[in-house]
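Comment thread on ticket #2218

A.B. wrote:
> Attaching the input chain for the structure job we discussed in standup.
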Amino acid sequence: MSKNLRSFTQAIYAFDAVVQRVPADKWDAATPCEEWNAKELVEHQCSVLNGVATMARTGEMAAPTPSPESDDVVGTWNACRDNVLTSLDQPNTLSQEGPFWFKAADIDGVCGMVQWDPVTHAWDLATAAGVDHGLSDQLLADTLDSVLSRQEMFVKSGRTKEGPEVAADAPLLDRYLAAVGRAA
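C.D. wrote:
> Ran it. Output below, let me know if you need it in another format.
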């Protein structure tokens, strides 16, 4: 398993851990993503991961793809999670050449670049639901490095906003959130 796939898999499971703990009465709760409530945020995450799964299966560029509409947020997420992980766990998948999202040369590169999305949205969803985000310092550190190398592009493309200034010795979570346009 590559480092990118390992970190991406950890990011997916971090998001999964939050989804599994969201109380049933919190799916309409506002998230730090102004345009999405908790359910819509999970739908967004499924769209992104469905796109990754399609690229992994086909070796061709794919757009984020919404899951079929359902009132079962957790069930929809579970199917999406299993689909992307199964799609990535096939021989020679990671070495398929693109270009793919963010001009990634191969699927392994896609994994390395996209891991920020489930990490960030794990925190967003946990904040909306009032549950622990469970993000490890190692996953945050790995993902922060990736985000910082693309931060200007993320802001210019509207994927993130300018974050607040934080000290270089601020807690890792605070530095990560600032890098993706959030505040703790």
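A.B. wrote:
> Thanks. Noting for the ticket: The mean pLDDT is 93.
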